[in-house]
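Chain X:
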Amino acid sequence: MSRIAYVNGRYVPQREASVNVEDRGYQFGDGVYEVIHVHDGRFVDTGLHLARLARSLRELAIPKPMEDGALLVVLREVVRRNRIREGIVYMQVSRGVARRDHAFPRDVAPALVVTARHGKAFPREIDTWTGTAITAPDIRWGRVDIKTVNLLPNCLAKQKAREAGAYEAILIDRDGNVTEGSSTTVWAVDEDGVLRTRHLDHHILPGCTRAAVISLMEEAGIRFEERGLSEAELRAAREIFLTSATSYVKPMVRLDGVAVGEGTPGPVARRLFELFARHADGATHNVPPASPRLASCGGIG
């Protein structure tokens, strides 16, 4: 069956889908994107993803291509036409098509592309859902809290991980502190047993799965701290795990070739994996879209 994409108002076979060569997303990376996990035919954490999309658009002064209700109709139709039960739906909004000029064009309609693809079913056993990580320098721009399509530094880091046989590259800033993974949020149980993840600022993406997991932990009474980690603290951690829309809750059992803790998923990751699995199985809107975990980190100006 041919995959179907939505491109600027039309559902078309993906092999025939195209955008204008003067689309600013293509020429400048002037656009944003979101990815939503589809599990058992349902969207997971839809409200969080749509809220973050709206925030990214506001930060770049790109108008919404349509209201959320209409966008949800498009997302569901793309998923339906592609017969997705397990996988992802991807949406990308660029500023639109205009004569090439660095300054923003006036009176240009934003461009919207939506695709979907099949993926593996949600993992049922955490012991088969482990991975390894390497560390890499964080060379990204200063506003990675905006989910833009400017991902070349992320791609370089991910490629470095793949060449090392690892799942993820954990990024370290110039001050020797952990920011995040190339496409994930990083969590660690430090040597004192405290669960930590970096506070939100301009240097990390406000992860939707991060927000969902925090909400689940608060409901379950699990203590954690939104506090930065140094590279040394990361290497001494009892547990390291990642969260994202496609990593869910994924333990890292080795870092730069050295075992993390006992080299197996730890008790905190196991507990959060179980909580998130239940969340994915039974809810798409349990976490409110106005979650403070997606709050603005400040404007561009």
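Chain Y:
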Amino acid sequence: MSVFIVLIACDAAQPSGQGTPTPKAPTRSAAVTAKPGSPSVAAGSSDHSITVAGTKRTFRLYRPANLSMSKPVPLVVMLHGALGDGRQAELAYGWNAEADRKGFVVAYPDGLLRSWVVSADCCGPSAHGGVDDVAFIRDMVANVSNQLPIDPARIYATGISNGGMLAYRLACDTTTFAAIGVVAGKQLGQCPAPAPISVIHVHGTGDDVVPYDGKAGKMNNDGQGLIPVKIDGGSVPDQIGKWRTIDRCGAPQTRTAGEVTTVLAHCPDGRDVELITIAGAGHQWPGGTPMPAVEQLLGLPPPSQALNATDSIWQFFSTHPRKR
């Protein structure tokens, strides 16, 4: 189990100032979309569940109290990393505060056994069990859209580490999302014919769990044993280059400010593919609050403060709706 524990490193962040969540009774999925002005979810944080392939799946939902439900609103799906969960992700990465400021709803799904299946060899105990996390997220989005007036052109997925890997899986296997945002993750498994989608990826060159250069990370076990972890697929810049090809982007433009280098390519239909590289940053959520005791225990660097990943990802999402 120690191999898998280190993958939670990026999730062991200090709460970002959100209030204590208020539990709500579970809800179930339905097939129709809520009309503007008729939300069935109270403001604040609430707990929900749906059944997918006979298994109960859970998630948390945050609806800002100051967000009008009189017209369709954006939805951000925040995917925790390995050994995290929705409640931890809600407290760790500042998305509730961002939603309050900018006006959108956030969903925080829970992976079974605290991990997401993104390939046959990754990640965690569920990887060899046939768990379909793509179906879960797709059904969760439908459930949320049944309860709140979600704009189908402004649905986004973001995640860290194993959660970022699932964001790529969603881009490969669905057309639900207008854009994805990945932090310290990679695309794993087959992705033969993805639809074009806007992508923003944030990664540190000092990440030794999901290495920027494509080498095997320190937790890699080639997908063997009870807790398979196989992280391959080439370097982060190479993977981003493939998405520029998928999106038929123009030549990328590069700019550097201190430790942060941004490579941005504009693509047809208003799409963009953006890679933000932070020199020396490790396997953490940039802009997170340092936790020295946890970092010392797990042998991890503190999160880089050279960039606020939440602000950067939302800024990208907010300017990339799906073209109708």
